Task: structure prediction
Amino acid sequence: MKIFAYGTLMIPEVMYAVTTCKFRFDNAILRDYARFTVKGESYPGIIPVTDAVTEGIIYFDVAERIRRRSVSANSGTGGNGKRRNIER
Result:
């Protein structure tokens, strides 16, 4: 499984601190979504915006047990598990 990260989880050391695992990763973009500051929070959120581009990184070979943790708080699923077209 792959996870697209667009916030603090873009930093491999932060991903490791959250998951205690190291993953292969590469730069990626998510089209038609824009990153915004979440009021009162220290992490960003994304929402659909036509012609927007959100830069991030994609982690490869992420185990199912890791996906179930709170990683989705700033991953490409937006917490709802829907797949998005992410480009490398």
About this structure: The helical segments are 12-19, 64-67. Residues 70-74 have pLDDT under 50 and may be disordered. Residues 3-71 form a domain with the Hypothetical upf0131 protein ytfp fold (CATH 3.10.490.10). The longest helix spans residues 12-19.
